[in-house]
Specification:
This protein is an all-alpha fold and about 110 residues long. The protein contains 6 helices and no strands. It is globular, with a radius of gyration of 13 Å. It starts with 11 loop residues before the first helix and ends in a 7-residue tail after the last helix.
């Protein structure tokens, strides 16, 4: 399924904040860089990882919120996104979503 259409306007400040977190993570909070698994090179090398570039900001933000609210330490299993999403603030989820939505989709 193709990505949802991007909104006409994304907040430039949110995109910049999200890009910083996506590229660098936050080592103090043990947050890895999103692009380690979701960057263009990673998703091409291992298609198991979700392609986030160019996806709808609304959908990405909603998914991060779902991963946060669904987190139960005893049942997290092998998905590393549950504890990662749990560490993100609402603002960081919105910023990351805006940043990834501002990018061109990664071709398959």
């Amino acid at each position: 399924m193709p990505p949802l259409a991007r909104p006409k306007e994304l907040d430039a400040a949110a995109i910049a904040r999200g890009k910083g977190l996506a590229l660098n993570g936050d080592p103090k909070r043990e947050l890895p860089a999103c692009t380690t698994c979701h960057g263009a090179a990673a998703v091409k090398a291992l298609p198991l990882f979700a392609r986030l570039d160019g996806q709808s900001a609304v959908s990405l933000e909603r998914r991060l919120k779902e991963l946060d609210s669904a987190y139960v330490a005893s049942t997290a299993g092998p998905n590393p996104m549950y504890p990662i999403a749990r560490k993100l603030t609402a603002q960081e989820r919105a910023d990351l979503a805006a940043s990834f939505a501002s990018l061109q989709p990664v071709p398959k």
